[in-house]
Amino acid sequence: MHFEYKVEGGDFTNAGTTSSEVKKMLKQLGVNPSIVKRTVVALYEAEVNIVAHAYRGTIFVDLEENSVSIRLEDEGPGIPDIDKAMEQGFSTASPEVREMGFGAGMGLPNMKNNSDKLIVNSVVGKGTTVEIINYF
Question: Which CATH number fits the domain that encloses residue 19?
């Protein structure tokens, strides 16, 4: 099964909508609750990163017999130093985003901790692609 979701940068009202829909689907399919939780945490962090840092993005979700693969592609400023961005506590979030309770520098580390496979590619001035894979 393949699903596609659009996400708008700055739309904090709808941040997490895709994560909620994927959670419902995985539960309906009888996926182990611990895998559902890990997948939703990783997806939520990635989804909020699009909202907080990019102009817009698309989330592609592919459900296979033994895995869920999620690819998030955004149009935004990109990540100049992915290794630095992977450090817990490092954040480039704006003061406005931080005032809303986001931007604590846990997004990418949480994605890594809650995925079986995480791939992050970015081009400064163009955008970022994040791939999350969890196996059942």
Answer: 3.30.565.10
Residue where the block lists tokens 């890594």: 112
Name the DSSP class of 134.
Answer: E
How many residues are recorded in the chain? 136
Number of domains in the chain: 1
The whole-model pTM stands at 0.92
pLDDT in tens, 58-81: 999 999 999 999 999 999 999 999
Structural domain that includes position 123: 2-135
Long-range contacts of 119-125 (CB under 8 A, 24+ apart): 120/79, 120/82, 120/85, 120/86, 122/78, 122/79, 122/80, 122/82, 123/78, 124/77, 124/78, 124/79, 124/80, 125/77, 125/78
Average pLDDT, the chain: 94
Report how many helices (DSSP H) and strands (DSSP E) the chain contains, helices first: 5, 5
Instruction: Decide: helix, strand or coil at residue 74.
Output: strand
- Of 52-56, 84-88, 120-124, minimum mean pLDDT range: 84-88
